[in-house]
Every structure is written in C-alpha cells, then in structure tokens.
C-alpha cells in the first residue's frame, strides 16, 4: 500500500461551491439592498432659516448652533424676514435649507406637503403698541390710523392682516398700512410716524418691546376679546399676564392683560436624517424647555400637531427618546454602528436558517449524483429484457462499463462510500442480466426493488 498514493476525498469542493453559490448570492443581494435603501450617514452640516438680526428666531438659532457644535455638527444660519419667508424657503426644493422656525397660521401660503414638524417649540405672542390718550378695547378702533404691520415675508404681517381684516380694516381704505417691522417700526411710532405697530419675535428684537413698554404715551393692546379670537382662529392661544409681570418696578401692566399668540413650530424637510432630528429636538429642549413668563417648565418642545404632521422620527423620540447607540456613543460612532446594524439584519436573517440548511443541501447534492445512475441502469435492464441482438448486447455492456468508470472516477467524500459500493453492486447485477449469466448477484431486478 505504501507504493500507492491513496487520495480519499473528504469534501467535494465542486458540490460545495454549487451548494454555497446561490446562498452567497442571495446574501450579497440582501446586503446590497440594505446598503442601497438604508439612510446614508447623517451630514455634518445643516442649514437653518431663522429671522432678522436681533429677533428671537435668530437668537434661538444661535443657541442651536452652539449645542449642535458640541456633537460635531455645524449649523449654518440664514437670516430672513421671518416666518413666511422661512416657510417659503423650506417649501422650495431648490433652496438649500433643512430646518426653520415657522409660526402657525401660514400653511395655506406655501406648498407645505413635503414638510414635517419636529414639534412646537414656543409661543409667539403678538404685541400691539399704539398711541392713544385712553386704552382701546377693540382692534376696529385703529381704523383710519397709520399701522406698521411688518415687512413682506414676516409672519407678523400675515397675522396682522388677518386680525385687522376680521375687524373690517384692510387696504385700500382710510387706514394706512406700513411695511415696517422690528426696529424700523419701533422708530416710526417713537417719532410719531406711526400710530400703532404690530411686533412679534420672528421679526422684532426683545429690546424693541422693552423700549416701547417704558415709553410714556405708548400703550400695549389688551385683547379683551381674547376668547373670541382663539375660538375663531384655532392656531392662536390666549396668554394672561398678571399685573407687574412685564415690569415690577413700574407695575406694568397695571392690571391683568390678555395677549394672543400662535405656536412656533420647528419645521424640517421630509428627508431630514433621523439622527439629526433627534439632535435638533434635544437642542430644542435645552433652548425652549425652561420656564418663562409665557410658559411652564418643560412645556416645550411638544408633539402638538397643528397644520403640519409630526414626523415619524420625532414621534418616536417623544415616545421613547434617542436610540440606544446615540445614548452611549459619540455621534459619529453611533451613526456608523447604527448603519452597520441595519445592513446586517437581513444577512443575519438569511444566515441563521441558511447555515442550518446547508448540510442537508450538500448531502442531497452528493446523493443526487449517485441516484442519477439508477435511472440509466433501469433503462439498460429493460433493454436487456427485450431480447437484444449480440451487437446490441455489446453496446449495452459498453454503456454499462462507461457508467462504472464514471462512478469510480467521481471524487466523492468517504462518508458516501456505502452508497457508491451499493451502486457498483447493482451495476454488476445489470451486467449479469445483459450477459445472460444470471449468476452475478442474487439481488432482484432494479425495477422491482427500492434500494435508492
């Protein structure tokens, strides 16, 4: 035996490759599909449309920028005239803007179908200052006056026009509506170039409001019909200010005062990355979550659905918080781990049952190579029973020899040797049938028994 090199095939690599091939192909395809449709890594730079310099919108955006910078995300801030311009930018697919502050009540002025809300972040009180020797009880009393309603693109202008129209005041008419807002509107009323001004945080600085509160002869309008306004305009909320709440030393206001305010929502485009959505809501909690004169602690941000639907990512965050990886890992690393896990899920789903099924497929593949010969043997046996001529018998024996040689030459694993030798035994039986000896085997004909 030492003179011969005995090569026993333990594994049929060809059969293994044929068995593994489809499984690997499906796994690669699943990986590609996951990679193709999973969200890409979150960008490290986003753009926010805010408001004019000094406005509450702009001041809030600056705070967002500092908070996001702690997580390695750069926030670029675009100044604007206010809520309406912010909404139009977000609705414009050509504008490179990701998020922005928009007050309620403007949705019908732009195509907002592709926008989603990350939640309401604050109230935006409307302050109406006017010159009058006595307090005014209704906005209709401003008819015929010079009123600064804010510049084009500001939410202040839209709300001012809406409320004035509800009181029968609109252009053209005896009332002069001035396109002034913020500091320009404040200067106009201080210089007696306007009789009343509408101010809101999207286009006016808090300092402007404080300056007018301290100016003799200028009053802050009291919405005595506040309940009627909030019922008629569902996006408004009523805010009650107790005496002295604006200035304790001067006791401003001297008596309880009612204001109305739309909610401000943080809007984003529908393709905003979930990780950035979580980060922005966290920043909103830090910026808008403390108690103020107008709100309670942790009242904002809140998943209040008004004119824009709350995004699925925001709803998930308000319900259960950040994802596990983002809670314990740096932002960039959590993003990488999150994407890898998402891509591995379909592969694992296929891999676990596939690994269990592969041994059965491999055994079936090897056994099928052996069982295929039995079909030929049965055909040869039937031909032998048909009383073939000597020449035909010779051809049958030659074909049988070829089958036996192919079986011997086949590299099959040693674990299948029993099936191979049973097959060769049956080959000898058929050879005896064809030769007419009948003595080679005592086995019954193949078509009458079921060894295979």
Description:
The protein has a domain at about 15-25 and about 340-450. Strand 6, helix 4 and strand 7 form a beta-alpha-beta unit. Helix 2 (about 55-70) packs across helix 8 and helix 12 packs antiparallel against helix 13. Strands 1, 2, 3, 4, 10 and 11 form a six-stranded mixed β-sheet that branches. A five-stranded mixed β-sheet has the order 7-6-8-5-9. It is built from 13 helices and eleven strands. It has helices at about 15-35, 55-70, 85-90, 155-165, 180-190, 205-215, 225-230, 275-290, 310-320, 325-330, 330-385, 390-410, 415-435; strands spanning about 45-50, 75-80, 100-105, 115-125, 125-130, 145-150, 175-180, 195-200, 220, 235-240, 255-270. It is rod-shaped. It is an alpha/beta fold.
Name the features.
disordered N terminus, 452 residues, disordered C terminus, alpha/beta, five-stranded mixed beta sheet
SSE blueprint and pairings:
Elements: H1 13-37, E1 45-49, H2 56-69, E2 74-78, H3 83-91, E3 99-103, E4 115-123, E5 127-131, E6 146-148, H4 155-166, E7 176-178, H5 182-190, E8 196-199, H6 206-213, E9 218-220, H7 226-232, E10 236-241, E11 257-269, H8 274-288, H9 312-320, H10 324-328, H11 331-384, H12 390-409, H13 417-435
Parallel strand pairs: 1-2, 1-3, 6-7, 6-8
Antiparallel strand pairs: 3-11, 4-11, 5-8, 5-9, 10-11
């Amino acid at each position: 035996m030492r003179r011969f090199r005995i090569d026993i095939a333990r594994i049929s690599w060809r059969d293994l490759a044929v068995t593994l091939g489809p499984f690997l192909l499906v796994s690669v395809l699943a990986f590609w599909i996951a990679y193709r449709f999973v969200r890409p890594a979150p960008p490290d730079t986003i753009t926010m449309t805010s408001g004019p310099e000094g406005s509450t919108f702009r001041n809030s955006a600056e705070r967002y920028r500092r908070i996001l910078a702690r997580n390695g995300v750069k926030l670029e801030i675009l100044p604007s005239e206010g809520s309406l311009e912010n909404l139009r930018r977000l609705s414009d697919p050509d504008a490179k803007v990701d998020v922005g502050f928009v007050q309620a009540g403007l949705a019908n002025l732009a195509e907002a179908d592709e926008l989603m809300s990350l939640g309401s972040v604050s109230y935006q009180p409307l302050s109406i200052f006017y010159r009058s020797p006595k307090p005014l009880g209704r906005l209709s009393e401003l008819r015929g006056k010079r009123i600064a309603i804010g510049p084009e693109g500001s939410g202040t202008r839209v709300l001012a026009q809406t409320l004035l129209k509800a009181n029968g005041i609109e252009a053209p008419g005896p009332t002069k509506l001035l396109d002034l807002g913020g500091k320009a509107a404040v200067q106009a009323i201080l210089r007696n170039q306007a009789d009343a001004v509408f101010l809101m945080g999207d286009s006016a600085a808090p300092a402007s409001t404080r300056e007018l509160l301290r100016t003799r002869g200028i009053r802050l309008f009291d919405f005595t019909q506040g309940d009627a306004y909030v019922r008629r305009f569902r996006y408004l909320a009523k805010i009650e200010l107790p005496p002295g709440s604006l200035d304790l030393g001067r006791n401003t206001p001297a008596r309880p005062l009612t204001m109305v305010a739309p909610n401000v929502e943080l809007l984003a485009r529908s393709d905003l990355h979930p990780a950035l959505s979580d980060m922005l809501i966290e920043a909103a909690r830090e910026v808008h979550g403390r108690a103020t004169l107008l709100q309670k602690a942790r009242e904002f941000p809140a998943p209040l659905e008004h004119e824009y639907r709350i995004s699925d990512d925001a709803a998930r965050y308000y319900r259960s918080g950040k994802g596990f990886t983002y809670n314990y890992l740096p932002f960039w690393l959590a993003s990488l781990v999150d994407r890898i896990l998402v891509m591995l899920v379909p592969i694992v789903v296929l891999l676990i049952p596939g690994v269990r099924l592969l041994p059965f497929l491999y055994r079936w593949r090897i056994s099928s190579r052996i069982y295929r010969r039995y079909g030929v043997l049965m055909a040869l046996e039937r031909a032998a029973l048909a009383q073939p001529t000597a020449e035909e018998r010779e051809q049958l024996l030659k074909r049988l020899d070829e089958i036996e040689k192919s079986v011997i030459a086949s590299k099959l694993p040693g674990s299948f040797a029993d099936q191979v030798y049973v097959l060769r035994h049956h080959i000898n039986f058929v050879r005896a049938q064809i030769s007419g000896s009948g003595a080679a085997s005592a086995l019954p004909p193949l078509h009458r028994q079921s060894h295979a």
